[in-house]
Write a structure and sequence with these properties.
Distance between the termini: 44 Å
Order of helices and strands: HHHHEEHHEEHHEEHHHHHEEHH
Mean pLDDT: 86
Shape: globular
Low-confidence stretches: 505-531
Strand content: 5-15%
Radius of gyration: 26 Å
Oligomer: single chain
Structural class: mainly alpha
Number of helices: 15
Largest sheet: 2 strands, antiparallel
Length: 531
């Protein structure tokens, strides 16, 4: 493998890994903020328990997300210096606003929320969480603005071979970004919904398995209490059944939201990156039918041997144009257009190094685009269906006693993660061979594009990038083990893992009653919630 291929693997691995934390941070943060608002408005103790338990998992994931996200910035300069030079004038504004404004606000107010449980008034404390969560949403917006410019460059003009921003408003209101942002947020909420549902199902099942909850003659649950363990009382049952129902409702609403915004996003892609969508369909020829399942050599340069086993007439036209009759261009037609516009081989330019003169592969890897598109939709649909089944299965106040269903619910947490990852892989891989895709607008802005082959750092060898790939992947593997162990530990511990005061033994009268914080200081360790 040459340096370009290794650099792409490195960026792909680290970015997909980092993005596994991002949707959970955004989605779970929003859910925790709503739950704490319910506690603030009602004063019900179960909402406080829910806030602290889900808030603890949110914090673990947030910290890991920050740690893994830092590497993304270094990669731009280390392996993609030419790309950084090309997009620097455009990316400077959104990335600076993300770091200096959104992330600064997010981390500052999240810190106030962590350490302000006893020090701030309840309303102020709640406001800190909302500000932090809104900051995370704006952080996502600025990142998506930058990514959307790579998908659809606007608001610039070429000066000395580099795009220079001339219209900041056009960049920040890029129609690609305005559709991608809500799609991403709904995807994040889908992850949070599945997370709540799976974990709550596990705890409700465990309460039945341990004999705490029983079933009455009418089939409805009779919540019980574990003697001497305050953390597993009747309020504990309320925590999990409400968490499960909230998660299920959030998951179903999110699937509907991703479907609507995904349809809008797909129509834009058909206009802006038609080859990506043709490859997603493995559609070699012009037509109107949507292929649910195709067989054949999906990755071949000549895809004429691909046969649609299951095809729905007219649906491809609807996805692209909103009607059922307009023909959509296939790979073969588009290939001729791309070659006539952008050439058949990489230019004879020193920036391409040994890759100069190589044939340009305008058709992305169809195994990735075709199956990635279907995995995105499939995993999302499975998660939504599971949420609907969960609402029906828990209509009498608890979950079935089946261990197999419990395991299925827990593993179901991965489905919305898979949908998010598949969607981003499809989006990024489908843009190839461009790192900045050309804008097909007839105004002439289509001169702004960059081949991925020109983006890699010329002074970095394949061996150096391979070394960084191995090191970073190894570190990320360790971090993955750490995060999973932490999450599993606190998930199994239940509410008591986030509220140890529920299970503290009574203080012996003969023991020193001096508060842990010292004379005149509160007994509650303000850091306990963060540990």
């Amino acid at each position: 493998m040459d340096a370009l291929e290794i650099a792409r693997w490195q960026f792909g691995i680290t970015t997909v890994y980092h993005f596994m934390m991002v949707p959970l941070t955004i989605g779970l943060g929003l859910v925790v903020a709503v739950i704490q608002t319910l506690w603030y408005r009602t004063g019900k103790p179960e909402y406080l328990r829910m806030t602290k338990f889900w808030g603890k998992l949110f914090l673990i994931n947030f910290i890991m997300g920050v740690a893994t996200g830092i590497v993304q910035e270094f990669q731009f300069g280390m392996a993609w210096s030419e790309y950084s030079r090309f997009v620097g004038d455009v990316f400077g504004a959104p990335l600076a606003m993300e770091a200096l404004l959104a992330f600064f606000v997010e981390s500052t107010f999240l810190g106030l929320w962590i350490f302000g449980w006893k020090q701030l008034k309840p309303g102020v404390h709640l406001a800190c969480l909302w500000v932090a969560v809104i900051g995370s949403v704006f952080s996502a917006y600025f990142i998506i603005v930058a990514n959307s410019w790579m998908q659809h460059p606007v608001g610039v003009e070429m000066v000395n071979g580099r795009p220079v921003m001339t219209d900041a408003w056009a960049v920040f209101t890029n129609n690609t970004a305005l559709v991608a942002v809500p799609h991403t947020l709904f995807g994040a909420l889908a992850v949070a919904g599945g997370f709540l549902l799976g974990i709550a199902w596990y705890h409700l099942w465990r309460r039945r398995h341990d004999g705490i909850d029983t079933i009455g003659a009418d089939g409805k649950v009779i919540p019980g209490e574990a003697a001497g363990i305050l953390g597993r009382d009747r309020a504990d049952h309320t925590v999990w059944i409400r968490s499960l129902r909230i998660g299920a409702v959030v998951a179903m609403i999110s699937f509907a939201g991703t479907a609507v915004t995904g349809d809008l996003q797909g129509k834009l892609m058909f206009e802006q990156q038609p080859m990506k969508m043709a490859a997603a369909e493995a559609a070699c020829h012009d037509g109107t039918g949507f292929s649910v399942l195709s067989v054949g050599n999906v990755g071949a340069k000549n895809c004429d041997d691909i046969v649609a086993v299951i095809e729905v007439p007219g649906i491809l036209s609807f996805l692209a144009k909103g009607d059922f009759t307009t023909e959509v261009k296939g790979v073969n037609s588009l290939l001729d257009e791309y070659q006539s516009k952008y050439g058949t081989t990489l230019p004879d330019n020193p920036i391409y190094g040994d890759r100069a003169g190589q044939q340009i592969q305008y058709v992305p890897v169809m195994e990735v685009t075709y199956w990635g598109f279907r995995m995105m939709i499939g995993f999302g649909g499975v998660a939504a269906l599971a949420a609907l089944v969960a609402l029906w299965a828990t209509r009498k106040g608890t979950v079935p006693a089946s261990r197999g269903l419990m395991r299925l619910a827990v593993f179901g947490i991965l489905a919305p993660f898979g949908a998010n990852a598949a969607g981003w892989i499809f989006t990024e891989m489908g843009r190839q061979p461009f790192v900045v895709a050309p804008n097909p607008d007839p105004s002439g802005i289509d001169q702004v594009f960059m081949f991925t082959a020109a983006a890699v750092s010329p002074g970095v060898s394949a061996g150096e990038i391979m070394t960084s790939l191995v090191v970073l992947t190894s570190i990320y593997a360790v971090l993955l083990v750490v995060e999973v162990k932490l999450l599993v530990k606190y998930i199994r511990g239940g509410v008591a893992s986030a509220m140890p005061e529920l299970v503290h033994a009574p203080v012996d009268e003969n023991e020193d009653k001096t508060p842990r914080g010292g004379p005149g200081k509160p007994d509650d360790d303000v850091l306990a919630f963060a540990y």
